[in-house]
Design goal:
The protein has 293 residues and is an alpha/beta fold. An eight-stranded mixed sheet has the order 1-4-5-6-7-8-9-10. Helix 2 links the parallel strand 4 and strand 5. Helix 1 runs parallel beside helix 2 and helix 9 packs antiparallel against helix 10. The longest helix is centred in the middle third of the chain and has 19 residues. It starts with 19 loop residues before the first strand and ends in a 13-residue tail after the last helix. 40% of the residues are buried.
Length: 293
């Protein structure tokens, strides 16, 4: 039997549960977001092709017949096209049935590449980018030290879409607490309306290192939301979206309510499910033990 050992911790989207995972980078190139503690134990590192070749070959023997490959860690798409393409070629060489290669990305990672480079990356198998925009509110983007603006976010995502690369967008429910809840929900819906991604998911803010740790990094006043208030914020967000055939999921482990549907077709039904959850949840209930995003 063939074994393989990753550089831990290792994270991937729920949809990549059965994908072969290749760590083209270690850690996150930005690693400064107030809410994110995924890669605090890792120093960012770009891995060379020669280092990856034997790993790709080994993984192809473990994931025989794999149709999907996910490039880790935090934002492997930060790599230049000249660095990525040989890696993609090596993946295609060993994974004969591959249908899709995906990666986490920051909008700035996309904007740093030319239209021609993005199209070439698409031709070499990059068909989906997971982008945690977290919020569409510019004030909140500054408070969480995201390193992006609403305009850079829209620009990057539309640039990827125009190159034929689909996007899966993540919004964090409860990110701004009570003070910023309404503007977070409204402006997040507005930015999603502008980009109309292929996939959309909502996660709930988690604090694995504790609430005080997050508050010390958050550049404003933070008052956590109760479970009902989280549902109400989510309801506002969903109700304002005007989308065309966007697959929506809230199946992340951090969420208290699992939703699934296509927006805007299923918007009314999703809102009814949220209303039912609001009506059946005690007002004083707060999210349970913190979870790692």
């Amino acid at each position: 039997m063939t074994y393989f050992k990753y550089s831990e911790p290792l994270f991937r989207p729920p949809a990549e549960a059965y994908s072969a995972i290749i760590q083209a980078t270690l850690g996150c190139s930005w690693n400064q977001c107030a809410f994110c503690e995924m890669y605090t134990s890792k120093k960012f590192k770009v891995r060379k092709l020669e280092e990856l070749k034997p790993e790709i070959e080994t993984l192809s023997k473990i994931y025989v017949g794999a149709k999907k490959v996910f490039l880790a860690d935090g934002n492997a798409f930060v790599l230049s096209a000249n660095h990525l393409i040989p890696i993609l070629e090596e993946i295609n060489k060993h994974f004969g049935r591959i249908q899709r290669i995906s990666s986490y990305a920051l909008p700035k990672d996309i904007l740093s590449k030319s239209d021609d480079e993005l199209k070439k990356l698409r031709e070499h198998g990059i068909k989906l980018l997971y982008i945690g925009i977290e919020t569409g509110d510019d004030e909140l983007l500054q408070l969480i030290n995201k390193g992006e603006t609403s305009e850079s976010t829209v620009g990057g995502i539309l640039k990827a879409n125009n190159a034929g690369i689909e996007t899966s967008i993540m919004i964090i429910n409860g990110l701004g607490g009570k003070m910023y809840s309404e503007q977070h929900a409204i402006n997040s819906a507005k930015i999603i309306n502008r980009i109309n991604p292929r996939f959309l998911s909502t996660l709930t803010l988690s604090m694995p290192f504790g609430e005080s740790h997050f508050i010390n990094r958050f550049k404003g006043e933070y008052i956590p939301l109760s479970v009902v208030e989280l549902f109400e914020e989510l309801r506002t967000f969903i109700s304002i979206t005007e989308l065309n055939n966007v697959i929506y999921r809230s199946n992340h482990v951090s969420n208290n309510l699992i939703l699934s549907g296509t927006l805007s077709k299923d918007k009314e039904n999703l809102i009814k499910q949220i209303d039912k959850a609001i009506a059946s949840t005690p007002r004083g209930l707060y999210p349970s033990s913190p979870l790692m995003l």
